[in-house]
Design goal:
disordered N terminus; 3-stranded mixed β-sheet; alpha+beta; 3 helices; about 45% helix; about 200 residues
Length: about 200
């Protein structure tokens, strides 16, 4: 029987000669050579954690600044609209108040027209009519919040009186109002004008 040649083991076929102690053996053909692994190709590189850091932060800052500017412009627009609306409302209130005041004086004008229409009548009746119209006008001012001040014999008050003359009056205490030359209307912050008066002085 023919005998087949047997293949010796690869280790036996490729003997490795022993080297001196401590020497590095050459790599075998079926094992990868020692050393660092090969780097992947540039197209497959993944960005590192800091690859887009500064640019991304700058974009976030820019977006935040734009949002703040937009909110600031909207706030300015809202404030301007509020100012204009308040001005319109204030003007409307003023117009209403002027109309109300003028309407309150219409009866006074009507009575003055009647007094002029009867100018040829009895002079005494004309005087009484004019006095009635004056009282009506005073009443209208009082209803509007401006009472009339034409009192005499009261102490001088610089907030309500304006001195236009000083007289000697032995019957009046010093510093009191002797005569009212022009009545005053209103009080405090709602004063239309002070009363023009003469005041008694000390001898």
């Amino acid at each position: 029987m023919a005998s087949h040649p047997q293949h010796p083991d690869r280790a036996a076929a490729d003997p490795v000669e022993p080297g001196p102690e401590g020497a590095v053996r050459p790599p075998r053909g079926d094992l990868p050579p020692p050393g660092p692994p090969p780097r992947p190709e540039a197209g497959y590189d993944e960005p590192g954690p800091d690859a887009a850091g500064p640019a991304s932060a700058e974009d976030e800052y820019t977006t935040a600044i734009r949002e703040l500017e937009d909110r600031w412009r909207r706030a300015l627009a809202d404030l301007d609209n509020l100012r204009k609306r308040h001005a319109r409302e204030l003007e409307r209130e003023r117009a209403v108040e002027r109309s109300r005041t003028a309407a309150a004086f219409l009866p006074v004008l009507d009575n003055l027209e009647l007094a002029l229409a009867h100018a040829g009548a009895d002079p005494g009746a004309i005087v009484e009519g004019v006095r009635a119209v004056r009282d009506q006008a005073v009443n209208v001012l009082e209803l509007l919040g401006y009472p009339r001040h034409a009192e005499t014999g009261v102490a001088f008050d610089p907030a309500r009186h304006e001195v236009v003359g000083v007289v000697q009056d032995p019957e009046a205490p010093a510093g009191t109002v002797v005569e009212v030359l022009r009545p005053g209307y209103g009080d405090g912050d709602r004063q239309l004008r002070p009363a023009a008066v003469t005041v008694a002085k000390r001898e």
